[in-house]
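pasting for ref
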Amino acid sequence: MAKKAQIESERHASKIRMLIGEFEARTQKSVVNAVINEYNGVKVAQNKDWISQELHREAVDLNRNFAALFENVNYELANAL
């Protein structure tokens, strides 16, 4: 069970690292003038909405997967006693 938890946590950590990279790429696309640090406000707002949705989705997925994992642990413990 510990190995499953480790694999699951690494999968989610990898997904979050991927989201960080994607967020940075999207942020660069919103730059209007890098010299004066000017950004397209509409693109920034869209990027904020996108990352919020993705992080929410990832949190729900993480919660669901670990809840199932802990259910399995409880089942195994109950059967061991």
